[in-house]
Amino acid sequence: MTDKQRIFSGIQPSGLATLGNYLGAIRNWVALQDGHDCIYCVVDLHAITEWQDPAELQRQTREMTATLLACGIDPGKHILFLQSSVRAHAQLAWIFNCVARLGWLNRMTQFKDKAGKDREGASAGLYVYPNLMAADILAYHATRVPVGEDQRQHLELANDIAQKFNHDYGVDFFPTIEALITGPVPRVMSLRDGTKKMSKSDPSDQSRINLNDDADTIALKIRRAKTDPEALPSEPMGLANRPEARNLVGIYAAMDATDAAAVLRQHGGKGFGPFKEALAALLVAKLTPIARETDRLLADPAGVDAVLREGAERAAAIANPIVAEAERLVGFLRV
Ligand code: AQP
User: Fold this and answer.
1) Among residues 77, 196, 197, 270, which one is catalytic?
2) Which of 105, 118, 248, 264 has its CA 20 to 30 A from that of 141?
């Protein structure tokens, strides 16, 4: 690694990567490889904050890794690894559990969203998830974290933890983290409900485009995507209070590297039928090469595992000394 700014980001193997993960995170991760030292992590410790079938978790972990490689993550120049294989994450997270305040965690909206009405039934891991996320980043002294808009609150909490640690132990040890929230579509919404985020763990497969969907599946999901009875407006202002239309136009614009105004200049005034056809064609053209490459990589699971193994060694070489120093600062006796 060099003295370029260090980037850290992670993705949960809690399902197959979705179009939301791609536009909100992965595409950006690939672009950031120019000009930064990047550490990208498949975060299985985070995934088990909600129960995962063990065999599925293993399968999804390999598949997520292959998808990241197929999208263009370059493990030759950067680091791609599995969170549970670098123990430093869990070790630092414990220290952060003791630094973070309950009041801070109580404000986290993702916990409220994910726990839903059954807060008492949620795992303690889900509650302290942001502390582990802070540890993921700060174990590498990473300063820039590309995430979707929904993760901004967790990054603010990570900075609160870093500051309190520095203050409590009278040091200037952990750096300030900057959220990199970019891309024309900060939040991709469900195809079944334009007010809900597209999620890999949504029970309905029809709610999302998976990066491994084939052409027919993509076309069918887009054809069935919820819309309203009006024609498409000719200007972005006309998308107000039309969450499903706004979402589809936003996806089109992001996939075509343009903006909503340009999409509506071309498709405004018409019904959703022809627009959905054009959107499906665009998604098929951009996503099916990724699915093909993912399949090619998965045909050699040992090759995918080797990428993770080598990545874990390089990640541990950075994180272990930083976490050992944090432990020394806390006052753990090493004999
Ligand atoms: N719908 C989305 N729009 C934009 N960005 C998104 N991200 C996720 N969904 C969208 C971004 O993807 C990155 C990795 O996410 P994650 O795997 O850590 O967990 P998540 O945000 O909880 O994603 P999911 O798909 O909704 O997973 P589940 O269903 O397991 O909870 C993050 O940068 C996230 O912002």
Assistant:
1) 197
2) 105
